[in-house]
Amino acid sequence: MKSKIELYTIEKVKERREQLDMKLTYFADCMNMSHQFISKIEDCDTDKAYNLDHLNDIAVLLECSIKDFFPDKPFKNNKK
């Protein structure tokens, strides 16, 4: 099960990707990942999530700050 911070981060990446009208398959290709893996990350019922290296690469690809993927304040109870 994903933690609250993982769910938040995944949603922020997806929102930014969709703002740029970037299809999941194109995004996955740019990240050198399979679209199936990205689909599993975006599925809240799997335990797959982005790591910090992924988030750094995503920020470069989506032309934003890595901080854009994190909440202003930490979650006190991070586990779902």
Automatic annotation (TrEMBL):
A GO molecular-function descriptor: DNA binding
InterPro entries: Cro/C1-type_HTH, Lambda_DNA-bd_dom_sf
Gene3D superfamilies per UniProt: lambda repressor-like DNA-binding domains
Domain HTH cro/C1-type, first and last residues per copy: 13-69
A matching Pfam family: HTH_26
Protein's UniProt name: Helix-turn-helix transcriptional regulator
Species in which this protein is naturally found: Butyricimonas paravirosa
Species lineage: Bacteria, Pseudomonadati, Bacteroidota, Bacteroidia, Bacteroidales
